[in-house]
Here is the input.
Amino acid sequence: MISLSALHTFGFNTFAKSVKRVDSLSTLYALAQQNIPNVILGEGSNTVFTEDYYGVIWQNCLSGITFTEDSDFHYITAASGENWHQLVTKCVSLSIGGFENLALIPGTVGAAPIQNIGAYGVEISSFISEVEYFDFQDKTLKTINAYNCQFGYRDSIFKHELRDVAFITKVMFSLPKRYEFVTHYGELSELENPSIDSIYEAVIRVRKNKLPDPHQVGNAGSFFKNPVVPLEVFESIQIQFPDIPHYPISDKYIKIPAAWLIDTLGFKGTIEDGIQCHPQQALVLTNYNNGTGRSLLNFANIIKSAVKAQFGIVLEHEVQLLGQTERIVL
Here is the structure.
């Protein structure tokens, strides 16, 4: 058995029978012939192995990045196993703008379209043109354009129709040379004369101040999604909590910070059986003191139940929770 403590950032001391490195398409084709339970793993920053995993783990190690351009766009093709933040840093060093708001998001390039990663008013779907993936059903490479990826808030076709069907191999990005910086969100609004570099540096500074380093304390970043609720649900909550922070999505839907809901109920800083709700960011659960997968699931359910009871909102977990052979849904 192989220890998974170093392969997922929560760091639980769980084990797997087999871990296979996918560092070429030929390796991917060979592994695809095996009809056994498997999970695709990047850097383990959004996956939690809550107990020993009995299938095969395919660790995405595909690498390679190319840059081209024309008069209007920078075009980037990145292999799915590349580190996301390193790609952002490379673009900033080349004065290619667009990704700077997404600095220091952990994980690989391949995870970006699955999650439709986003931060500080920017989502990666704004820059994706196509995604190449290996189809497990007919053992071929396919390409899907951004429109057909069905991007939504932390959502995509890769979580639904193509879930367990697609192994993303490349992501193609188009970044316009003329665009407006997005600085209306949070601390970025305080920047004077914003630039690619200053936004990049500010995002890193804020994230480091607010979020725990998984190398120091195990965590998977934001555990829950920020809920998007109908306007009438928000207005009913606002009667009791006039200062509730919110972000209009449309004239009918409002996004509410899950961290505010959790913090309002007093969970920030609390510890349950080795798992802590982070004292600076209530959206993050951490492996504070040799916690276990079971204790994480229990604490997450306690939080989820309390939010539903007080606000009538059902929180959804953002991280992928794995049991012995399949995903766990709280």
